[in-house]
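Entry for pyridoxal-5'-phosphate complex. Fields follow.
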Amino acid sequence: MLADIEFLKVPVVRKPLPGPKASECIRLDGKYVSPSYTRPYPLVVKSANGLWVRDVDENVFLDFTAGIAVCATGHCHPRVVKAIKDQADLLLHMSGTDFYYPPQINLAVKLAALAPGKEDKKVYFGNSGAEAVEAAFKLARWHSRRELNIAFFGAFHGRTMGALSLTASKTIQRKHYSPLVPGISHIPYPDCYRCAYGQCRQGCGTECVSYLEDTLFQTTIPPEEVAAIFVEPIQGEGGYIVPPPQFHRELFRVAHKYGILLVADEVQTGMGRTGRMFAMEHFGVAPDIIALAKGIASGMPLGAMIAPAEIMNWEAGSHASTFGGNPVSCQAALATISLLEEGLISNAEIQGERLMAGLRELQKTYECMGDVRGKGLMVGVELVKDRETKERATELRKKVIESGYEKGLLLLGCGQNTIRFSPALTVSAEEVDVCLTLFEQVLRETVG
Ligand SMILES: Cc1ncc(COP(=O)(O)O)c(C=O)c1O
């Protein structure tokens, strides 16, 4: 039973880790499971509730990963679990590509109403972030009849061939998979801590956008051949990088000047994580196409792509997926969205500020914390060897994450040297404080 972990205030970890049952699982995994997965530490999960995760040896961890920013409503939220169980009793699958069923229609109505922008919207359903991006990629080509696309260095859009061609996060993700989809150009993402154009925050003239218009569109890329610009509102896997406030408005202006669609990949930033339903709301931009997944259904597989009806005008048979918009996932999403609207989005904003404030306080003591940044509960700490040179502390990042696990705090990395904090949006002030206390212990022991 999980009830007891609801009342836990601190992790309970017995050394050595991994314990005997976890070790046996990992042995079998090594023999039978694809070796392409990257595991930062040997956590083998049995059950979870809220922010608390229990492993197969009965150790209990505080989870500041939310299963890679997925379990928005916390692990196994009772209302989401009930919605799943109720729907499972009624209908597991019928395939929304060939038949109709209310959960998919009801979710489309809800997402269409939530998406920013005045136009009537339509929704396409898949099973994952990559599928949502892949659908956006195909729709942009189909609608515009243009072949080229722009994306950003550091971007992660998924691992299917189209999405992977837009991805420019780590070479290991692309190695041996060429040729990828042609016609995609990558440009630097606005990383104000390490501006590719040598600017500082004060003097910023959004060179990250003018480079596109003044250099690329004048020299190598005919803008009238560009279908879409794919952008993460806040770069996720690339290092939790928050662009300057004017960036997305400028990008939108340039895109529309040349009839180019702006696709916001909100797979990680969406569904309330940043303290707004969609992160683009922070920047005052209503993108043409939005890709969603991760937090949308609290852990059930679901991806969605939203666009105005006049853009999503492809004909029957152009694109579909057997499992996309599965009724159980759609009911989980509807329950998730209700919870987000009833208070979890504002909790993300409040607890995100508490977490950032606590981390900034630690930054005064720990030189290795080069940059603390984020919005809502999408918070990154970039570790450096030296604050002046900003040399990346990649080995230290590895040690900090491993040591967090040993102390019962689950964290993940992103980018080359950033630690990400992406807890469930149900996180309490006490849980934020426990995280901060454990993180400080980790830093004290790792860097002294
Ligand atoms: C911004 C973004 N887009 C797309 C994806 C791909 O999602 P999935 O792993 O569900 O295919 C991810 C996953 O991390 C992501 O962060």
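NOTE: The first strand starts at residue 45 and ends at 49.
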